[in-house]
Design goal:
heterodimer, A: 226 residues, alpha/beta, Rossmann fold, nine-stranded mixed beta sheet, globular, B: Mth169, Chain: A, three-stranded antiparallel beta sheet
């Protein structure tokens, strides 16, 4: 299965993401610059983390209006798997692909630490290699990860099972409503999450808890091979 | 033509920066500050003299970029 990573000026996690995608899929991901008008054919498209456009205006706001985003929105609507991590999550909410918004951390501090994430559903293309209710370790590094949605939106996404990942064991480090760390779009093919699973894929990073998320993305391959 | 766009957080949206500013004002000795909400101001210069068109354009700019209407309100003033 092929993957692609969208690049904006100011991102800094694209190479970590490329390593995770390569190790999980066995293929080098395509790197796609934001001024392109079309993303090459890919089964998985990732918007990685960093500080696109220096977080000017609002985190992810400028990147979300880049030329490449029209094609990303089109491909997401067609059912392609899309993952946004950290700044990528902010970009996907700003682009209207995901509900809610990411606000300044409630404690006003940039947080760089490890959190624990509870998997709310295992029947998604992002979490098939985890068990429902399982808690796994992942690092976070952000200043604006405070997930907000108005009460109606919140009730809807909770009711529809769009909340996929929650900070567990008191590790909600940014004030996110309902401890929300990751949300799906209604169709379930787009996930945005603040924590960095790509930075927990090797024992040298302190663990491999995040790698199964990437294995889940390419699980179709294993099924075909079996 | 000059215009000023003001973007503010919606009611009910937590504003930790406003809270911090409120705390700093009180530690400076300003009594009676009941609340602070931080927002943004954009001063925009437009070509042409058609006010109705300017207002429509500025509203579109707010909807598409200047404000995130999930969390923010906007107000357009043509000066």
């Amino acid at each position: 299965m092929k993957s692609a990573i969208i690049l904006f000026p100011g991102l800094n996690r694209e190479r970590d993401m490329a390593t995770a995608l390569r190790r999980a899929s066995g293929h080098e991901p395509a790197m796609v610059w934001h001024t392109e008008s079309e993303i090459p054919a890919a089964d998985v498209i990732v918007v990685p983390g960093g500080f696109s456009y220096g977080d000017y205006l609002r985190c992810g706001a400028i990147a979300a209006r880049s030329p490449i985003m029209a094609d990303l929105v089109r491909k997401a609507a067609a059912g392609v798997t899309v993952l946004g991590v950290c700044n990528g999550f902010q970009i996907l909410t700003e682009a209207g692909l995901l509900p809610g918004a990411l606000m300044r951390n409630a404690g006003l501090k940039f947080v760089c630490r490890e959190v624990r994430l509870q998997v709310e559903r295992a029947d998604t293309r992002f979490t098939s290699r985890y068990a429902k209710g399982e808690v796994f370790r992942t690092p976070v590094a952000h200043g604006d990860g405070n997930y907000f949605a108005d009460p109606e939106t919140l009730a809807r996404i909770e009711g529809e099972g769009q909340v996929l990942l929650r900070y567990a064991d008191g590790t909600n480090c940014n004030g996110s409503v309902n401890d929300i760390a990751g949300v799906l779009n209604p169709a379930g093919n787009v996930l945005g999450m603040m924590p960095h699973p790509e930075n927990m894929i090797d024992p040298l990073q302190g663990g491999t808890d995040g790698f199964r998320l990437f294995q889940s993305l390419f699980a179709g391959d294993a099924e075909k091979a079996a | 033509m000059k215009a000023r766009v003001t973007v503010t957080l919606k009611n009910g949206v937590l504003d930790p920066q406003g809270k911090a500013i409120e705390g700093a004002l009180s530690s400076l000795g300003f009594a009676g500050v009941d609340g602070v909400r931080q927002g943004k101001v954009f001063d925009i210069e437009l070509e042409g003299a058609d006010r109705a068109k300017a207002e429509a354009d500025l509203t579109a700019m707010c909807e598409k970029l200047l404000a995130n209407t999930v969390i923010e309100n906007y107000h357009v003033d043509i000066l």
